[in-house]
Amino acid sequence: xxxxxxxxxxxxxxxxxxxxxxxxxxxxxxxxxxxxxxxxxxxxxxxxxxxxxxxxxxxxxxxxxxxxxxxxxxxxxxxxxxxxxxxxxxxxxxxxxxxxxxxxxxxxxxxxxxxxxxxxxxxxxxxxxxxxxxxxxxxxxxxxxxxxxxxxxxxxxxxxxxxxxxxxxxxxxxxxxxxxxxxxxxxxxxxxxxxxxxxxxxxxxxxxxxxxxxxxxxxxxxxxxxxxxxxxxxxxxxxxxxxxxxxxxxxxxxxxxxxxxxxxxxxxxxxxxxxxxxxxxxxxxxxxxxxxxxxxxxxxxxxxxxxxxxxxxxxxxxxxxxxxxxxxxxxxxxxxxxxxxxxxxxxxxxxxxxxxxxxxxxxxxxxxxxxxxxxxxxxxxx
Length: 382
Description:
It is built from twelve helices and eight strands. By secondary structure, the protein is an alpha+beta fold.
């Protein structure tokens, strides 16, 4: 996919958790979008997935400041010189790819002059509501409540932090990210709300001792996991399994406190080794994942595929069967089970192919497998 350009602040958001699936799985498809046109234009000359070298050509060193962002870099244009009149921060991963941008309006941006955006926001339900004081806000010094509104498109997420959501909405922050990095731009992460609180001057909103479970995971682990997802699922161009393998290994080495995260990192690393044709390494990681979280259908299915590649079709068949028992509507495992059964149980193979076809009817992404399944059913019935 080419880098996608943002001319507006709208789209649709779906909460992004762990992207689980087989090697080569496309990014999740999101529901229909609310109106996406807006008269508040922010990222008019910058695209997510843009390379830092191209960004710096447009914004030379004299126009921005730079600081480390984990293993990546944050470049910030101050509000005094930015086109949006807000503080603009752009976040690049260690490969120099723009994965997110954050616009902060510490004095608040009145949205009265932007009716189209206000109409879009009115159709979104707040995903988070909380109390927040911002000392620099021009319209009022104490806010009763703030709301986080989330939207986006198939591969990206937009978040708006707004106060006065009813008749007089004031925009405090807007962020744009490719989906794997959404967790790093959460309002529960101190580094973003602290930009509004003006804590350096001892003013602003309340101190929050706990800001949600996302803060409990090491930033470096989350950042590398997101980097792996972006490379593995081709969020910014072609799939890059070398980058994905490097990222997942770094994520595991950094340490997750939650075994769910660690299990999924090992799962994804296993899928990456599988895609690179290194099946013994893939098997090791997938078994590690299952030792942390047994009976996960996707991991069982992927391990089954690896076992077949290693020549153990019986072990693969057993794993595919277990996956469909745990999740009867798991179409890909049904397809794999059908292929594994062909040599030993023709009747079962036909049944599994037909079940697969019923599950994926009308899904364009499955067209190639659908064609193959139909051809095999015809052959096996002869």
